[in-house]
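Hey,
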Amino acid sequence: MDSAAPDTQRTMPVRDLIAGVSVAGLLLPEAVAYASIAGLPPERAILAGIVGGLVYAAVGRSRFAIVSATSSSAAILAANEALADLQRDLDAAYARWEALEAG
């Protein structure tokens, strides 16, 4: 049983690398698609994935959780919609003001 432990220690980084590349290969296209739906450039999706992974690595507790840019997509989309709503409200207020000025 002790002879298996050193072999396991050597193969773990290789397995982790294969798992990371596999997950990235699946999630990056999805993240870029979510960014384009939100009207954001693709590099924002990649940045969100990197930042989300680093933050989870610093404070996360589960070995089995997958944190990706698509986890952040809800926040990105919500912020984008909130800004769009704010812009529509400002446009409507400006139109009302112009109408009042025109008399």
